[in-house]
């Protein structure tokens, strides 16, 4: 009991401390109406999910300590909807995390749900749908939290934001159906990479073949992105990726970049020619506009990790006083070959924490290994973790755990390890897996290590990239390695300056180790951020300190068994 | 209070009488799993909503007095679903009527709802989605109720069923969005008319140009429908239309038809060359296979009421022992010109009740006129009734009325009439309308007349067909007329042998009068059965005897304000 009292005190202190901050903080109100719209994100018109009639959704901008209130009205005709605030911890408000079946019931058509949460930490974030594959339908936008005045540990004169995504011409309904069909139907590579929701299908090629004019684009919905800069200034570029599938690389002609932030955490400044960014990640880089001012420059975004059939996306760095439409004199930078993994690893390994970043506990209380495999269940292709493919129940975990309801999800404890003789370099010998909805119950305020272990897929000589995203937390990235994780690898963990992240890449045939402290009462998914992979079961559900969760708003509990049992 | 006690007794007697019947009756169990499927209903593959992996849904077949139990699992990824059992009165089970926002909450993804209801009256029925435009996505099937042995008032040797529908290649999501866009985007005429879910796009033309072979169809999903018959027998054809838009005409080469049933009610047998059938209607016709047995014969289905851009649908009447694929020696019958309304009216006016059909009360207690207009609201095109375009609330009426919840729907009493000087022959002078959710509250066990009045649409010289469908009831069709209804028309009402129907056509520029008794406690929509018209607001909501509704199952109340207030 003593421990429990201590925990209560801790939470009270944390809330009080937030309250203190919030004396100066603002509450920022937004009205979001989610509905289908016609839009031409790459100059080809399709149906998308928009917010307030536009795509992408409005940018939310706040200061650390502010409270965000989003009144979300669902105007989709027959679909539910939720929005996840990616990278926001939701300390004290786990029901506002915006994950259907986990933190809340999907909001029914014509109904309104109010998301209210504090943004306690400066950084580059975004928000997106977290139900079915609605993110891939266009349900996303930027969420940027400024540091308190004078508290940013680097200097810059101005900033630009780049929210990156990928886009298919096939409807999300058809994409989704294809994933759960026999035979499996894969939508293929994206038609277009979008920057701030804008791309040019069948048109960016012109840039590369040395044509001297941009495509004729009269539709502002797909106009090329132009970043206006003044000479001899320092710019912060906030780059976030909400791609459904694609891993990306970004490079700027003639300009080096200094990486200073990753997923809302400051990192030790590192100068690079290009950056890799995986779905779910965000970075801030600084660039100095010290190049020949008579020219504009290209910013290129290419695809990593999959044989690209998609043209790189381009934006223009427009030096004042050049014309916006003046084509750069040099060709767009060519991003690395898709399968040059050594390049990717070199970049990823370079990202370490800025001095002064909180250090991880020296030891973990529990180590959980997560084997990432591609499997089959009744002939359907699935992804599994320790041979369980996540199938979330219709009643959200948070409410059912808080109120101790039975039979909502599997009571079976999910496995914490896998067979020692599993050959990660070969397709699974027995590809059969099973669906599951069990929860990893974690002791509150304990230190957990996850070892993500990649494997060969169902096809010979294929292992895919998986960017894993943890809700409700930042974690320390303790290390990466090739092949199978060995116990002795623990000795090599970076406990000196491991970067804090909320999303981390798992390289093909490799492993990634993370550590975090279970200090945020709630139920939190940890999953591959590739939308079709999650939809095919690639994730797990964690619960910690659910007994400390305060009263969940009724509106988050309206469905399923919580809906039946918990009213008034 | 005396009246109330009498009503209770009436209901108890009715239930007891049903119970007696049900001693001999069966309970028939069905499991329906609703989900997206790939299907090729007209030989072009698209996504559809299927049941148990197939399209159309399974045929439900029962005997009058049986109880049907359908366990419906929603396996759509993000959409709710309901199913309406079209033509079934749902006496004592108004929550099983399957209308989202009216009788129940939509069933959430991964959840199961059990429909349990009695089919008390023999007839040709069907079922279909009643949420958004899911019917048009393929969510429908046949529901056939046989008369008790020996109680059918006509003789036949065997029967065939024809469930008719129309089909578009554009997704229902896109069709729906187009209806609520500025500018309005109309999907256009259907690509294909389907018979039992099968049609041949870009192929039926071959039949008409005198080609000597059918298209090569190897896919059973779109194989032409063949009705096998033996010579010199009498066949009952059960014909039902669940089209989204199209009014149809059906004719059979060399064979006359005797109409014997309409919407589950026996009619005075009438011999015709072709029948008109509107969305929501069903007919049974008898044919005698007394023609030259060396040939097969065509059955043709053409479009009425709209300039058709869709090939007629064809089926083959296959006389034994001819080959199934033997082409008829004569050309398919040509259905009447689309705008030959005199032909349609002549057919419709001929349908009267069989002798012995219950007669309507001689007078009504209340007459409500319903002006059908096309309007604009904030620039969006809508349909309105007495200048109100129906916009149903997220909380279903049935539960909120039963439990007296406030602020669920508009408390405003909807108008019972319209301006006497409204010119039905011209576009509206003021096209502006407003949305509404008010309810027509009808005294229990009273006699109500509705006068449906058609008008000119927003375009000069256009008035459209509207087949109006009433839930929970059969009604007597007292009369039809051209132009504006006059008080003196009441004197011409057919009180001698008015047909009982659940769906009735409103002809362009005309009026239709119906009468019914409010003897079924519940909340019932009365609406145009054209899917886009209903979606654009063309309907009203009636309530009667809601105080006599017994306990509504919790599962029907899980959403909205009932969800918040009514649990345990």
UniProtKB/TrEMBL annotation, chains A, B:
Any idea where this protein resides? Secreted
Recorded E.C. number(s)?
A: 1.10.3.3
Q: Does the keyword Metal-binding apply?
A: yes
Q: Which InterPro entries match?
A: Cu-oxidase-like_N, Cu-oxidase_2nd, Cu-oxidase_C, Cu-oxidase_fam, Cu_oxidase_CS, Cu_oxidase_Cu_BS, Cupredoxin, CuRO_1_AAO
Give GO BP annotations, semicolon-separated. Answer: negative regulation of defense response to virus; response to hydrogen peroxide; response to virus
Q: Which UniProt keywords apply?
A: Copper, Disulfide bond, Glycoprotein, Metal-binding, Oxidoreductase, Repeat, Secreted, Signal
Plastocyanin-like domain residues: 34-148, 160-321, 430-545
Kindly give the Gene3D superfamilies that the UniProt entry links to this protein: Cupredoxins - blue copper proteins
State the SUPFAM superfamilies in the record.
Cupredoxins
Which named protein is this?
L-ascorbate oxidase
Species this chain originates from: Platanthera zijinensis
Q: From the UniProt record, report the name of the gene that encodes this protein.
A: AAO
């Amino acid at each position: 009991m003593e421990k429990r009292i201590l925990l209560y005190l801790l939470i009270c202190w944390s809330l009080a401390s937030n309250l203190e901050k919030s004396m100066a903080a603002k509450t920022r109100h937004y009205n979001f109406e989610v509905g289908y719209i016609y839009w031409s994100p790459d100059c080809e018109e399709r149906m998308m999910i928009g917010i307030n009639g536009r795509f992408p959704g409005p940018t939310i901008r706040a200061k650390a300590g502010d409270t965000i209130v989003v009144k979300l009205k669902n105007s989709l005709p027959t679909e539910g909807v939720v929005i996840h605030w990616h990278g926001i911890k939701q300390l004290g408000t786990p029901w506002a995390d915006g994950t259907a079946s986990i933190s809340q019931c999907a909001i029914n058509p014509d109904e309104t749900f109010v998301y209210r949460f504090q943004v306690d930490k400066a950084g580059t974030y975004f928000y997106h749908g977290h139900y079915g594959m609605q993110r891939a339908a266009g349900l996303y936008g930027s969420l940027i939290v400024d540091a308190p005045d004078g508290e940013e540990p680097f200097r810059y004169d101005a900033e630009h934001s780049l929210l990156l995504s990928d886009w298919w011409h096939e409807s999300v309904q058809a994409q989704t159906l294809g994933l759960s069909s026999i035979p499996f139907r894969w939508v293929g590579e994206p038609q277009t990479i979008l920057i701030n929701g804008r791309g040019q299908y069948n048109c960016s090629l012109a840039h590369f073949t040395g044509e001297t004019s941009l495509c004729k684009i009269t539709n502002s919905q797909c106009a090329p992105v132009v970043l206006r800069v003044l000479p001899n200034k320092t710019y912060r570029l906030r780059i976030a990726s909400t791609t459904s599938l694609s891993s990306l690389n970004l490079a700027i002609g003639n300009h080096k970049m200094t990486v200073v932030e990753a997923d809302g955490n400051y990192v030790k400044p590192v100068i690079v020619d290009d950056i890799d960014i995986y779905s779910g990640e965000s970075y801030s880089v600084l660039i100095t506009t010290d190049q020949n001012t008579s020219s504009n420059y290209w910013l290129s975004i290419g695809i990593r990790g999959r044989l690209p059939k998609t043209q790189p996306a381009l934006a223009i760095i427009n030096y004042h006083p050049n014309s916006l439409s003046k084509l750069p004199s040099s060709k767009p930078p060519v991003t690395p070959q898709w399968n040059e993994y050594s390049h990717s690893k070199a970049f990823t390994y370079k990202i370490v924490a800025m001095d002064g970043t909180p250090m991880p506990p020296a030891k973990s209380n529990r180590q959980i290994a997560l084997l990432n495999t591609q499997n089959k269940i009744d002939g359907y292709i699935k992804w599994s973790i320790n041979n369980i493919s996540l199938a979330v129940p219709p009643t959200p975990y948070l409410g059912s755990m808080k109120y101790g309801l039975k039979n909502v999800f599997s009571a079976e404890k999910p496995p914490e390890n896998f067979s020692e003789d599993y050959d990660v370099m070969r397709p699974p010998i027995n590809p059969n897996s099973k669906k599951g909805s069990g929860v990893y119950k974690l002791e509150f305020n304990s230190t957990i290590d996850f070892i993500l272990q990649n494997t060969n897929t169902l096809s010979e000589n294929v292992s895919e990239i998986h960017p894993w995203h943890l809700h409700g937390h930042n974690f320390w990235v303790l290390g990466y390695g090739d092949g199978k994780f060995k116990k002795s690898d623990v000795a090599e963990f970076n406990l000196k300056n491991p970067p804090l992240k909320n999303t981390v890449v798992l390289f093909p045939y490799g492993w990634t180790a993370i550590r975090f402290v279970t200090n945020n009462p709630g139920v939190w998914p940890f999953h591959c951020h590739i939308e079709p992979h999650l939809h095919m079961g690639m994730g797990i559900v964690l619960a910690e300190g659910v007994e400390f969760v305060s009263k969940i708003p009724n509106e988050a509990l309206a469905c399923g068994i919580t809906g039946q049992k918990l009213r008034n």
